[in-house]
Amino acid sequence: MTQYPIVNGELVIGGQSVSQLATELGTPFYAYARAVIDARIAHLRAALPAAIKLHYAIKANPMPSLVAHMTGLVDGLDVASGGELAVALASGMDTREISFAGPAKREPELEAAVRAGVLLNVESFREVELLATLSQRLGLPARVAVRVNPDFELKSSGMKMGGGPKPFGVDAENVPELLQRIGDLGLAFEGFHLFAGSQNLRSEAIVEAQQLSFELAVRLAAHAPAPVRTLNLGGGFGIPYFPGDAPLDLAPIGANLAALAELAKTKLPHAELVIELGRYLVGEAGVYVCRVVDRKVSRGQTFLVCDGGLHHHLAASGNFGQLIRKNYPVIIGNKAAPERTETVSVVGPLCTPLDILAERMELALALPGDLVVVFQSGAYGFSASPRDFLGHPQAKEVLL
Ligand SMILES: *Cc1c(COP(=O)(O)O)cnc(C)c1O
């Protein structure tokens, strides 16, 4: 992983060697590098037209100090719960640039959002009715965009979140009726939100979904009670996790967004175009580190048994949406330029065969005390894991 230098055989994260960090923090821990996030966003901005607004979906990594760091780098934050809304409101981001999506917004969450003045991506007729009541009771406008469940899918996505029957958003064919209701109730309509899927490494699939989303929004805009001021085209930009994954090619996506921004000048003249990304911004900027506790040979297979595993990093164990378990990139961080290697499996401390961090991987020859580093761990790690399962100590998190 070229984003982290190796000095004297040690992986260096945010200017500190992995051994130094392990001594200071104790293991296991997640470390996120500001400089890697900054470089990633600069690279992305250079590939995208200036007119495109970039939002961070904080679900990917809601650590408050990391979210606060993002406010200086992106144009908005997208949240998906009242808890994430609280993190976003405390981050320093302009509240008008926060948007809130999610299929089961409860009344206190909607109220908090209206009070704060954030944009609500409404996902049902119920939400619209409730917002009208709340808005009247509070004497405050409710800013709404309609989250549309499109009539197409994002092809080759790790997770599909639109197209076909879905709990997310309102089916495109029912959106005209919802728009009518939004107009009748006098809510402040601002635009549309479409999110077709996640973890996609094929730029042609992303380009196609963005084009179809744009065309759908133009068709729906004809039914809207007010001009479209914001069109969130979603994201889905993937990162390479597994052997054979190639990084996403941004050039065709940038060219397509430039063409859409040009089209928008005539077809949606008041709209700004937004994309919302999670893992693409932060996933490669984080590592998970745990320590080898024991080294065992069982019937010819060597196991490094560690103090961390599935309970801190469900995704790396292969149990967070993967159909076939594959190894995340893993190294022995304090032996990052190894002279001797061997094929081993790295497992965690839980009494379940699901607790695997690396299966039959070639790693530096490791002993108890050595440090296992899992790359690509800046997104869907700490907050997406069953951290109380089996009652082991919690992982720490640091932003460097
Ligand atoms: C999960 C999610 C994202 C972020 O997805 P990534 O794959 O991390 O980019 C963005 N928007 C919505 C609506 C989501 O549900």
UniProtKB/TrEMBL annotation:
Keywords: Pyridoxal phosphate. The lineage of its organism: Bacteria, Pseudomonadati, Pseudomonadota, Betaproteobacteria, Rhodocyclales. It comes from Uliginosibacterium aquaticum. CDD domains: PLPDE_III_Btrk_like (cd06839). Its cofactor is pyridoxal 5'-phosphate. The keyword Membrane does not apply. This is Pyridoxal-dependent decarboxylase, exosortase A system-associated. InterPro entries: Ala_racemase/Decarboxylase_C, DCO2ase_PEP1, De-COase2_CS, De-COase2_N, Orn/DAP/Arg_de-COase, Orn_de-COase, PLP-binding_barrel. It comes from the Bacteria. Residues 36-282 form the Orn/DAP/Arg decarboxylase 2 N-terminal domain. NCBIfam families: dCO2ase_PEP1 (TIGR03099).
